[in-house]
Amino acid sequence: MTDALPTGATIGILGGGQLGRMLSVAASRLGFRTHVFEPSTNPPASHVADQITCATYEDADALRAFAGTVDVITYEFENIPTSALDLLEDLKPIRPGREALRVSQDRLTEKTFLQDLGLQTAPFADVPDAAGLEQALQDISAPSILKTRRFGYDGKGQARIMQESDAPAALSDMEGAPAILEGFVSFSHEVSVIAARGLSGEVSCFDPGENVHRDGILHTTTVPARLNQSQRMDAVLLASKILNALEYVGVMGVELFVTPQGLIVNEIAPRVHNSGHWTQNGCTVDQFEQHIRAIVGWPLGNGQRHADVIMENLIGDDMDRVPALVKQADCAVHLYGKSEAKPGRKMGHVNRIQPSKRPNR
Amino acid sequence: MTDALPTGATIGILGGGQLGRMLSVAASRLGFRTHVFEPSTNPPASHVADQITCATYEDADALRAFAGTVDVITYEFENIPTSALDLLEDLKPIRPGREALRVSQDRLTEKTFLQDLGLQTAPFADVPDAAGLEQALQDISAPSILKTRRFGYDGKGQARIMQESDAPAALSDMEGAPAILEGFVSFSHEVSVIAARGLSGEVSCFDPGENVHRDGILHTTTVPARLNQSQRMDAVLLASKILNALEYVGVMGVELFVTPQGLIVNEIAPRVHNSGHWTQNGCTVDQFEQHIRAIVGWPLGNGQRHADVIMENLIGDDMDRVPALVKQADCAVHLYGKSEAKPGRKMGHVNRIQPSKRPNR
């Protein structure tokens, strides 16, 4: 375990939402402390972190003080301002590294990177402006989807172009931000691979999960996913290829469309991923501990699946179902401690567990 | 869920050691916050609790302030000073309740309580003084073991009397504290039942584990324990009898000696128990979440076992083995974040997991 941090070291986490919260809990299991940096007050991770800094990413003093207390820095979201990263990376290691952030922060860079790796993506074209959109629509044609290059999540910053006449409205939805036009892909279903790469380069992937979205937000992830043996192998190999190309350290979520022409990479997320929450009840070492192990330089853990799981997100007033869910013997309920159940807000999730029909550990 | 606390409520925990730490983590999983009360500085639970009060149990102001911030109070150890409990119970519910503490804080009261329930215990006699010891030795005879009535743990406050001439030295080891003489029990092995009782009276027991001690400290717990079907049933029934008699709310550890004449109750602990740590990797809902569910008035969870587990405590310089243990695929490592690995100090534990040969869920 060269370069491994000893138990008791402090892990800095940028972002204090539910992912930061569950990373913090996983870190504690291995004896690490966490220090969470988050602009908003009373974030979910603050209830379980050892330390919390409430400051903006523009607050250089706060960032410096934060870096001074931690041994390594990780993050729960990819849209961290570049200026903050520039400041922090001079002070402490940031894992996953800058290259993964640079690629995944920008849809155009990401798609180009994936294509250069020889992986399939949806057809795409740069849309810097109105003229660019006209050109892009000639190359790709409607129906297609216009997306901001940066800062999109959960379906935000996207507009469908079903026919060419939708183009002006879609462009104005971008509010002047640089955009990318993506062609529609005809796929039977979406799966994701939660992949981890350790500091010494070893890669380990969790069993792919099958995702269903509602209103642009992940609704359920089911393991095992509907994949034949060769697709399953392809999914794992292409995820490994991405992680190795980036010399990645940590857990990454890789979303894939399943098509008759093979797997198409939809998106990569350089962090623990909502579609990996099933691992909390399906594996000995879950995605959160796997990420912590990777970034502190410990060996990756055993991510083999011992149960079939359906993860369902609890969104907004799904919270009203919690009293019934905690009575059900097959349900493991995970709640994020958020005080207000706004519509569209991820409040928790439930893992429905079945003994695996195909045990693989 | 009458009287159930809503997610987001705050649970007060007396004691900030590893049990308080793991209770705190389990509470966070269900969206609860925790406030830990602990006299020593930098206790393990403080790294994961939402709030920490560092004060003595004699500090009435601190206890009152603590009670003011919480919705229910629980504890990780049974030897809480009575004066603190008297103060707190007027302010907030304490679960498990006072009767369980009264019984388990005093070995004589506990043994009498168990006997009155019709359960088997080791032969015992009250030893208020030297004359009492002489009388007790006539009733029970050597070899036997003299124990302080209160404040014993991990083999402390105990002295063996192998022959009558050992009596004076044993008595002086008690340092004037009221004691109890216990006869030796000839048993093949020790098991423990981790039992839970909910606020509405339902009882759920985890599968009994088999315990091996070293130097008076728990070394390993193995599930399944060596018990035949009838012994397994007896173990669960007698644990339920104890919990029901105390109108208990929460998780209790019940240690049993297995003898040809049946199961003999060694000791009860009104809290989560070291011999229940295997549940973290063997069950969907572990002993810590089960305890939290009980004390907040939620339904008990699914404690069925899905794997065979050997839990081993990591004590003192066992910490040197951690780099090797985290490489092993069958090991789930749990560390407590204690800074100094003193001899005899519980630093963590490892759960070695095997798919169950006798799945029961």
Describe the structure.
Two copies of one chain form a homodimer. Chain A is of the alpha+beta class and 361 residues long. Chain A folds into three domains: 10-94, Rossmann fold (3-Layer(aba) Sandwich); 123-183, ATP-grasp fold, A domain (Dna Ligase, domain 1, 2-Layer Sandwich), CATH 3.30.1490; 189-355, 2-Layer Sandwich (D-amino Acid Aminotransferase, Chain A, domain 1). Helix content of chain A is 27%, strand content 29%. Chain A has eleven helices and 17 strands. Chain A has helices at 18-29, 60-69, 82-89, 98-104, 107-116, 130-140, 167-173, 229-245, 279-282, 287-295, 322-325, and strands spanning 10-14, 33-38, 51-54, 72-75, 124-127, 144-148, 158-161, 179-183, 189-197, 203-205, 209-214, 217-223, 250-259, 262-269, 307-315, 331-335, 346-355. In chain A, the strands form three sheets. In chain A, strands 9, 10, 11, 12, 13, 14, 15, 16 and 17 form a nine-stranded antiparallel sheet that branches. In chain A, a hairpin with a 2-residue loop joins strand 13 (250-259) and strand 14. In chain A, helix 1 packs across helix 10. The first copy, chain A, is globular. The mean pLDDT of chain A is 94. Chains A and B meet through helix 1, strand 16 and strand 17 of A and helix 1, strand 16 and strand 17 of B.
